[in-house]
Amino acid sequence: MKFTFFKKNILIATLGCCLFSCSSDLDFEQVNDFNSQPVFTTNLAYFEVKALDFVVNGTEQPLFSYVSNVDFLNTSFVEENLVKTELYFRIKNTIARAYFYNVTFLDQNNIPIYTITMNVPAYNGTEVLVEKTETFTAANVDILKRTTKMVFSIAMLSGPPLTADSLGRIELSSSITAYFDVK
Amino acid sequence: MRKITILLCLSVTFYCFSQNKEVLYNFTPQPQSLLVNPGADVKYKWFVGVPLLSGISANVGSTGFDAYKLFANDGVDFTTKVKNVLASTSRNDYVTANQQLEIFTAGFRVRGEESKSYVSFGMYQELDSFIYVPKDLAILSLYGNKDYMGKSFDLGDLSAKAEVLSVFHVGFNKQLNEKLILGIRGKIYSSIFNATSTHNSGYFYTVQGSNLIYDQVIKSNLQLNTSGAAKYLDENYEDDLATDLRDDIPKKAFLGGNLGLGLDLGLTYYPEKNIQITASLVDIGFINHTKDVVDYTFKGDYAFKGVITNFNEEGTVDDAYQDFKDAIPFDTIYNKYTTQRPLKFYSSFQYSFEEERQTECDCATDEDSWYRSAVGAQLFAMSTPRAPMLALTAYYRRRLLQGLQMKATYTIDSYSYSNIGLGLTTKIGVVNFYAMANNLLAYSDLSKANALTFQIGFNIISRGSSK
C-alpha cells in the first residue's frame, strides 16, 4: 500500500514535470562546432647596432649577425592551429652606409629555408625608415612551423669605411601577428 | 521502482539549475525546513525520512544568459552564440549549481508529551559549484589581443569553485517560552572533491611602444587548489575511472574525505500571537583540505620584448620562450588549504490571519493551527567569492485542506524579477509527501529560464505536523 502510494506520487511528479513544462529545441552537440579564431600579436625581435660596433681593432667588419631561438614556433599549439602570420619589420638607419638587412630562417638541422631581405639606403641627414611586412598564408605558413632559429644579419654594401669615430645607429624593431584557427 | 527513481533523479538534475530555498524556508509542516532554520517552529512527535527519497533538491542558475541563448537549435553558428553571450555578460555574471540528496534523516521530540524540545539528525550529500564568467580571459582566447590594444585584461576574472561533499548533522530545537524558539545544528563535513580558484589576480596588456613595436606586460597570480582528485589528475593515471570512483566515493563520503566543521543557528520569535519573525544562519563552517591535495600555480611577471633584444644579455643566443616559462612557471605544489562553506542567511516576517481553532486536532498549543492563512516577506543572502547574492521574497501560505498545505512565493533576485514558486505538502496518515518548485513562469520554456529549483521528498511523520 505504502509502496503504491510512493510510486503514484513519483509518477505524478514526473509526469507533471513532463506535461506542464516545455523547452525549446536545444542542441548540445553544437559544442563540437566551437571554433575560435584569436589573433595574437607580440614583439619578435629588437636590436640596436651602433656604427662603431662594426669596427673591430680599427677595421670594419662587413657582416654583423645575431642568432635567435624561435622554438615557440614549434609548440604543438602552433603546429595544430596556426593558419596565417604577418611578420612586421621596421628599420631606422642613421649610418651613412647602405646595406642589406637579412632575416634567415633555419630549420632544426640549421639549414636555411627562407630569407627576408630588406634593402636599406644610406643616411643622408634624415633618419631612414624602412618597413616591411611579410605575410605567410595557409600556403606557406608551414615554413614558420619548421623554423627553429632566425638569423638577423646586416651585410654592408660598399661605401666610405666605418671607423671608431663613425656616428649613427641601426635599430630593428619587429613584431609577429599570429592568426589561429582553434577547433 | 528503481527505474522510476533514476528517471526522476535524472529529470531533476536535467531541469535544475540558486541555493535559495525560499519555498522550503519557514514552511514548517515539512521537517526539512529545519535544514534551513534549525530554530523553525516545527511540531512532531517523530519523523523518519524515506532513505534516499526524503529530500531531493537541485537548483541551477545563471545570470546574464540562459541555456537557450547558447544551445538553441536555430541554425546560428555556435561560436557566434558564444560571442553574443560573452558580449552581453559581465565579469560579475555567474553560473551556479547546487544539488542535495538526503541519504537519511530522522527526528524526535525529547522528554515526553509536554516537552517542546526536538532533536533531528541525518546525512546528506551536496554538490555545489559557482563559476563567474571569466570575461577578459574569454575575450583573449576568442579574439586574441590584436584588436584590443590598450586594454588591460583582468586575470582576476577567473573565479570558480566546485565541490562534492557529504554532511552529517545533529540539531536541537527548543521552545523557550510562548514567544521564542531557538535552534542549533552541528555539522561534520566530509569533502569528497573540491576545486577552488577564487583568489586570482593579475593583468595582461599590449600598447604601442616606442623602440619596441609593443610594450606588452603580463603579471599573473593564478592558483587552483584541488583536493580529492590527486589520483585522477596524475598524468600517468590509467586505471578504470568508474571502478575507482565507485570504491573511492563511499569511503570519502563516510568521513574518509577532508573533514570540516560547521554550525547552523536559527530562531523564531512571536512578538504577537499572529506576528512571526524568524532568522537563520546556515553553514557557518570550514573544511580543511589536507589529504589528496594538488595545487596548480601560474605566478610571476614578464615583459614580452621579443626573441632578441639587447635590453638584456648581449651577444648570446636568447631564448625568450624559455625566459617566459622561467618568469611565470606553471607549477604543481602540494600545500594544504582551507575553504569556507558558502554562508547563507535567511530571515522572515509573517502576518497570520483567518483565525480558527481546530477542534479535531489535539495539538491545541500549535500556534499555526489557529490561523488558516499567512502572508510574509523573506530575505536571503549568500556569500560568494565576490559580492553577496541577495534575494527578496513575498509569500502567501494557506492550509487548503486537512493535511494539505500550500506556500506560494514571489522572488526578486539577480536571476530574475518574476520568479513565482509553489510548494505543496500533504500528509495522508503518517505518510508525508512534498514537492516544491520555483520559477514556474519559466516552465513554459525551460530553456529560457535563468534559474530553476526543484525539491521533492517523502517522510513518515507521527502526529502534530499536519497543522
Number of helices of chain B: 7
Give the CA-based shape of chain A.
elongated
CATH topology of chain A: Jelly Rolls
Number of strands of chain B: 21
Q: Major β-sheet of chain A, in short?
A: 4 strands, antiparallel
**And the CATH topology of chain B?**
Porin
The counted number of beta strands of chain A is: 10
Largest interface: A-B, 55 and 61 residues
The value of Rg of chain A in angstroms is 30 Å
Protein name (chain B): DUF5723 domain-containing protein
Pfam family, one (chain B): DUF5723
Domain DUF5723 (chain B): 38-438
InterPro entries (chain B): DUF5723
Q: What labels describe this entry?
A:
heterodimer, A: about 180 residues, alpha+beta, Jelly Rolls, four-stranded antiparallel sheet, 3 helices, 10 strands, about 15% helix, about 45% strand, B: about 475 residues, mainly beta, Porin, 21-stranded antiparallel sheet, 7 helices, 21 strands, about 50% strand, elongated, disordered N terminus, Lipoprotein (chain A), signal (chain A)
Task: Please give a structural write-up.
The complex is a heterodimer of chains A (about 180) and B (about 475). Chain A has a single domain, classed as Jelly Rolls (Sandwich). Chain A contains 3 helices and 10 strands. A 4-stranded antiparallel β-sheet of chain A has the order 1-10-5-8. A 4-stranded antiparallel β-sheet of chain A has the order 4-9-6-7. A two-stranded antiparallel sheet of chain A has the order 2-3. In chain A, strand 6 and strand 7 form a beta hairpin. Chain A is elongated. The model of chain A has no long low-confidence stretch (mean pLDDT about 85). Chain B has a 21-stranded antiparallel β-sheet that branches. The N terminus of chain B is likely disordered. Chain B has one domain: Porin, CATH 2.40.160. The two termini of chain B are about 30 Å apart. Chain B has about 475 residues and is mainly beta. Chain B is elongated, with a radius of gyration of 26 Å. The interface between A and B is large, with 55 and 61 residues. Chain A: This is Lipoprotein. Chain A: It comes from Flavobacterium taihuense. Chain A: Keywords: Signal. Chain B: Pfam families: DUF5723. Chain B: This is DUF5723 domain-containing protein.
